Please model this.
Amino acid sequence: MSKLTKKQKLAAEKIEAGKAYSLKEASQLVKDITFTKFDASVDIDVRLGIDPRKSNQMVRGVVSLPHGTGKVTRVLVLCTPDAEAAAKEAGADYVGLDEYIEKIKGGWTDVDVIITMPSIMGKIGALGRILGPRGLMPNPKSGTVTMDVAKAVKEVKQGKIDFKVDKSGIVHTSIGKVSFNADQIRDNAKEFIATLIKLKPTAAKGTYIKSIYLSSTMSAGIKIDPKSVEEI
Model:
């Protein structure tokens, strides 16, 4: 068994075993236990009381975080020539159509989000095997298939993220950076959890929010008392 480093020991001492913290406490604690030399991401994991195998209990949605994600999001817009100028002005990193479709067919996926128009989806369908496994396939439900590509680009650049429950009933996403102050982390977490609550399937029975954990890159998870969610 590997020995803990001094910083790991210090972090472990700050977390009380078995304790469930309030969201406010956890938002500060996640900063206190992170000692990475880089600006680590702050992640949230929420276990839901649903059966993701059933289509009527699937939880998927989008949320615009009040303080953004802190990440530089690279956006590719696949659109018709008349929409290119607006997409570029909105901040898209790459704009075009056929040339980028060919690049993707060749294995290029060096972007974080792909936004397109309904009329273009026929051309993009063939890219499903490449984009699907990487979570890059545009989808109307996530707002990445739209006539207003400029608006979609702005929203993504400002901190809009999409999420989906996994096979274990857990929703995992990044909600900021350790460089954020505790209030910013808390605000983003509150917005994310509030969105999950709004998306509760009518078919879901019993306890919906089963557990919540907050962590940063390479840090231990901090258990959050689900009852503190009532503060939202």
Notes: The chain has a mean pLDDT of 91. Residues 80 and 97 are 7 Å apart (CA to CA).
